[in-house]
Automatic annotation (TrEMBL):
PROSITE patterns: FN3
Sequence ranges of Polar residues compositional bias: 128-138
Protein name: Fibronectin type III domain containing 4
Keyword tRNA processing: no
UniProt domain Fibronectin type-III: residue ranges: 31-124
Gene: FNDC4
Residue ranges, annotated region (Disordered): 124-143, 182-211
Naturally occurring in which organism (per UniProt): Pundamilia nyererei
Length: 223
């Protein structure tokens, strides 16, 4: 019998179990974890999360784990088919501590979670810090655009209401003018008839006074 060396045993094992060899020698496909996770544009009820992804890997999305520091509430945000490296967290509670972690989503799975990042939301009474860099943030620009749209819609609604009020007032004024004209015309038509009836009554009265039945009438005929 020929004794096989350890090297020959490995080769025989690879040929006998090709699936096992594939599993042993397949390279890892999971992307690396995001780095430089930061929180900016803090508000009382929102915050913007940004991160970076190492180059050389195909990233098709991200996943964010959001949790209150006291552990009472946890939320997961997952988005695919995007190349965005930022996300806005909404519906946060004011004056509250949060913990977030970000994962990259690749073609064959998700990466390890990034390092934990802690942040604290503001109070509603706090004023937002004026920062010129906020104007370059797409999130802030989107909020500004939505505010401008809301202001424009309110202006349009007010203008339409004013126009309707003006139309109604003009209609009421025209209706009053037409009503006054009709009443004056009716008075003018009724005035001549009353004037004509008075002499007839008066003359009739005179005739009745001349030919009153109580007064005797004498006719004298001379031959």
């Amino acid at each position: 019998a020929v004794q096989a060396s350890p090297r020959h045993s490995v080769i025989l094992l690879l040929f006998a179990c090709p699936h096992l060899s594939l599993a042993v020698y397949s390279p890892p496909d999971r992307p690396p974890a995001p780095v430089n996770v930061s929180v900016m544009h803090l508000r009382a009820d929102s915050a913007t999360i940004s991160w970076e992804v190492p180059e050389g890997d195909i990233i098709i999305g991200f996943s964010i784990s959001q949790q209150r520091q006291d552990g009472q509430m946890q939320r997961f945000i997952r988005e695919v088919n995007t190349t965005s490296r930022s996300c806005v967290l909404w519906d946060l509670e004011e004056d509250t501590n949060y913990i977030i972690q970000v994962q990259s989503i690749g073609l064959y799975g998700e990466s390890q979670a990034s390092k934990k990042v802690h942040f604290h939301t503001l109070k509603k009474s706090d004023r937002f810090p004026s920062n010129s860099s906020n104007q370059d943030d797409p999130t802030v620009q989107g909020l500004d655009k939505s505010r401008h749209l809301q202001t424009g819609e309110m202006i349009i609604i007010v203008v339409v209401l004013v126009m309707w009020a003006a139309v109604i007032a003009l209609f009421c004024r025209q209706y009053d003018i037409i009503k006054d004209n009709d009443s004056s015309n009716n008075k003018e038509k009724a005035k001549p008839s009353s004037e004509r009836s008075t002499p007839e009554h008066h003359s009739g009265g005179l005739l009745r006074s001349k030919f009153h039945p109580s007064v005797p009438s004498i006719n004298i005929i001379e031959v």
